[in-house]
Give the backbone structure.
Amino acid sequence: MSDSKVYYITTPIYYINALPHIGNAYTTIVADTLARHHRARGREVVFATGTDEHAEKVLEAAGREGVPILDFADRLADGFRAAWARLDITYDDFIRTSEPRHHRATTEVIRRMMETGDVYRGEYEGWYCVSCATFFPDVEGETPTCLNDECRKPLERRKEPAYFFRLSAYGDRLLEHFERHPDFVRPEFRKSEVLSFIQSGLRDCCISRSSNGWGVPFPGDDSQQAYVWFDALINYLTVTGWPDDEANYERLWPCDVHLVGKDILPRFHATLWPAMLMALGVPLPRTIAAHGFWLSKDRKISKSQGGLVSVDELAEELTSMVEVERDVAYDAVRYFALREMVFGQDAEFSREALWGRFNADLANDLGNVLNRSLPLIERSFGGVIPDGVLDPDIAASVQAAARLSTERVDAFDFRGTLEAIWESIGKLNKYLDTRAPWNLVREADLQPAKDCLLTTCEAIRRLSVLLISFIPHAAMEIRSQLGLDPVVSGSISEELAGDARMAGVKIAWGKPIFPRIKVPKVKPETSAPPTQPAAKSEKQAATVSYEDFAKLELRAGTCLSAEPVEGADKLYRLMVDLGSEVRQVVAGVAQAFPAAELVGKQLVIVANLEPAKIRGVQSQGMILAAGGKDPVALVTLDRPVENGEKVR
Ligand code: MSP
């Protein structure tokens, strides 16, 4: 990887017949993560995405709506821009194939290729899939269907004068390029499909069709326009300013990474495109990285197949399930996508898996580190991070996560990167379990508590630098809570070098960034007939069976903080440490006890109470107190036990 050149990264340009769903959002999320990560490593990045507008199906979609094609295209392109804005995608250029700059580049490519004889006039006769915008010259039968397994729509017979690209001349040179550049296609296992496609013999490729007024006109032949895939691939050059802006072209090209889905790798990105570049005498991109498909119940999620889930829908659902900032909900979807999919392979999408990751990784693992340290600093050190000595094991585990992050992002192993970061978060949680700073703050010598809290805050600061490319808003929120500038000013290596920087920093602990979500219960397929009401009312007598009592999960938990709930003078929002997790509990004891009296006390919590929203604040349990509606005494334990210990 050369460091002087701008790191240039692209996504495929998207067909605008519908708005993005989780499948194509994934490509963009990966590209954005890569772009952010390389910027965080101190490199200048140009990240381009955009829309592929000249497809026949786009014209058809506009026709169905009865809208002029340009208005339709503007609306859809704006829809894509808005969708990416909600996900905070940090692209530098948004290319539309209907733009003059792209028509200029495409025309020039064709003109040059006609000059060299790489493009020639002939006649095309064969089958064409409108939906996939792909020609299939070899299909047999009277009414064949598309060869793409996910499509299978009827093919149309086409016979027309057409221009061809001399692809057949490039097979050997392509194979040689693969041989010489082992990193050309990533991950490695995706290469074999490409090689066998090339080895099976390449035919010349039809690159024009009769003009329908919606495409790049063929230079010198008004009856024809460029085939949509031929023009679409050229977008990667258009963005550089080719052929007019030589300086910018030199700055960006060759492209560092074309990110694509596996369906558009063998035929288009790893064969046609490099052959086109060879014909033009333009160097090939460094790497084409292909990911697998998101499947819903084993089928590809796609615009034409249905089963669509948009990231907006998922984020919206999360915000309705839990008190979480909208940007953070989008981050949670990003996290899920990057963590769940092994880059290159297919992955199954389900909401349950998203919610599971949210609770386990974000609310529990990451959330607990914050929720167990920051309220304690607030309470015991006036909100100022104390000075101390860093724990060498924790410091080393964060450095290891940083090293692995860089290595794994370079190998497109996003899941592995997050695993490395989460391993370090796991170590930090274990460290907090064993040190138990909430007990150390009661000791006469406060130094061990100070060492522990400084170690934790410094580790979180460093982890926030690694996390910012993956979950940007949550990472910025973490930094704000730590009392830091949410924007990281230095490069990763600068931020992770040197001594601890957190001592003396005034924190700004607010509320949990990722409260646990209440996962909806799956409704039974068939509902049982109602049971006899008489039997039920007998059960509601003054006594309960032991089985019923045993259903209650009572646990010991230390109250870490108590804050008034806005607009409700009886309520506190408590953070309670239950050992393996910190819960937010709303308790109606504010008039009976000053906050200071609650904090540090080990209370008894009803831990399996259904979560509820009280005055808009999520409550995940209940504390026990005597005195009914007007509590007079708290239920505590007469000697300390491990937090989370069951109470019977
Ligand atoms: N317009 C072409 C690309 C031209 S690039 C010069 C195209 N557009 S697309 O909108 O149909 O698809 C864009 C990307 O979304 C592709 O990389 C495709 O693989 C990806 N995905 C579409 N459905 C997908 C899933 N269900 N899962 C993961 N990605 C998939 O192709």
Summary: The radius of gyration is 30 Å.
